[in-house]
Design goal:
Helices cover about 65% and strands about 10% of the residues. It contains eight helices and six strands, in the order ββββααββαααααα. The chain is globular.
């Protein structure tokens, strides 16, 4: 998920992250929210309580929790990888990544401005899911190797869990609803197809709200059936999506009233001071 801001204030840089192929060095501040600790705790509990005992029975709870913490940390790294994908592509199309924020509900890469064209906006949005898809393939290869050499089933289960995590991040982010990456892609595509950025923003806005309430409904059903882990995750993400859409709705409406520069008039996509974080 990526967002744009025109603020030019310098941002402290934390460690260089090398772009793909070592073509360029991407130095960008990474700002983890305190809720990342909650994400690690919830994820470790989910894997240690439900996943690993079924995949590798007969182990101690210490072993399950230790592996759960490793996989939970991999979840945060997968979210970071997703945002680094946005940052790398953003830099390649001429944007300046200001910082990456991470939280319980995902991440945001903040840029100095919006992409110049809808095609660039689509490429920028798709970069994150593509990075997670590559990570899923790599983790899948590791899982196959571990199984073939008859390694510890718990280690193989951890690799498989990382595959599922990255595939999940990829699939969820391709849902055509804001604030997800798929929502940014669909908004740009609809604006080009309809020539009406206001209609495109309204459609993706409503789909985002529907997604939030659908997840809350899933949480209620999961709670009634006793699936505590699913209920907790669905409720947290559902309310987060709904709250995000409530807060950014005035910003989205301001996009549709913004004047469209000549270079974008044919595509019908208006620029924005800040694109909502996804």
């Amino acid at each position: 998920m990526a967002s744009s801001a025109v603020r030019r204030a310098p941002v402290p840089r934390i460690g260089p992250l090398r772009a793909a192929g070592g073509v360029a060095t991407l130095a960008i501040a990474v700002r983890p929210d305190i809720s990342c600790l909650l994400a690690i705790g919830l994820s470790a509990w989910t894997f240690a309580d439900s996943v690993f005992p079924a995949a590798a029975p007969g182990r101690s709870m210490v072993a399950y929790w230790a592996t759960g913490l490793v996989v939970a940390s991999a979840l945060i790294m997968s979210l970071l990888l997703h945002e680094v994908g946005h940052a790398i592509v953003g830099r390649r199309i001429g944007l300046t990544p200001r910082h990456i924020s991470l939280s319980l509900f995902g991440g945001v890469t903040v840029f100095d401005r919006e992409p110049d064209t809808p095609r660039q906006a689509c490429g920028l949005a798709l970069a994150g899911p593509l990075a997670n898809l590559v990570a899923a393939v790599v983790a899948g290869i590791v899982h196959v190797v571990l199984v073939e050499v008859e390694a510890d089933p718990l280690a193989a289960a951890a690799a498989a869990s990382i595959v599922v995590i990255n595939l999940g991040i990829t699939i969820v982010n391709l849902i055509p609803a804001l604030p997800l990456d798929g929502g940014h892609v669909s908004r740009a595509a609809l604006a080009m197809a309809l020539g009406r950025p206001d209609v495109a923003a309204a459609i993706t806005d409503n789909i985002g709200r529907l997604l939030g309430w659908t997840l809350v409904g899933v949480a209620v059903l999961a709670s009634a059936s006793g699936d505590v882990a699913i209920a907790v995750w669905a409720a947290l993400i559902g309310f987060a999506v709904h709250d995000h859409m409530r807060r950014v709705a005035p910003i989205l409406r301001s996009f549709t009233r913004a004047p469209i520069p000549h270079v974008l008039r044919r595509d019908g996509v208006a620029p924005a001071t800040r694109r909502p974080a996804a």
